[in-house]
Amino acid sequence: MNPLKCAFVVTSGKFLGFIVRQRGIKIEQAKIDAILKIPEPRNIHELKSLQGKLAYIRRFISNLAGRCQPFSHLMKKGVPFEWDESCKKAFENIKSYLMKPPVLAAPIPGRPLTLYITAQECSVGALLAQD
């Protein structure tokens, strides 16, 4: 264990690109800014880069698979890359969602949990939440 990399009795800190606090875990602002500043992808390589960045913070974005569904036809082999209106709309939707990302927190024992389930044609999602 490297004592220079260890911190004990702290109220918050950065860990693997996330801010860990007593209240919960949130995304480091630099990670969000990196996605917000990305221009629309112009080719498959840029789209894969975007999807990699989104995968890193996937647990903070509800229904990420559904939100990214318009990109799926562009990922198929032999399909020409054409960024259409549905892709543009999905991209802007993700960016607007990241303007106020959620904070993940551990459940409080004794409080009721609510299970939210959503099913669409191309994705299924579930969220366990607590007020």
Low-confidence stretches: none
Spatial order of the strands forming the largest sheet? 1-2-3
**Proportion of residues in helical segments:** 25-40%
pLDDT averaged over residues: 84
Secondary structure tally: strands: 5
Structure commentary:
The N and C termini lie far apart (38 Å). Strand 2 and strand 3 form a beta hairpin. This protein has 131 residues and is an alpha+beta fold. The protein contains four helices and five strands, in the order E-E-E-H-H-H-H-E-E. The mean pLDDT is 84. It has a three-stranded antiparallel sheet with strand order 1-2-3.
How are the SSEs ordered, and which strands pair?
Elements: E1 12-15, E2 18-21, E3 25-27, H1 29-36, H2 44-56, H3 64-67, H4 85-97, E4 114-119, E5 124-129
Antiparallel strand pairs: 1-2, 2-3, 4-5
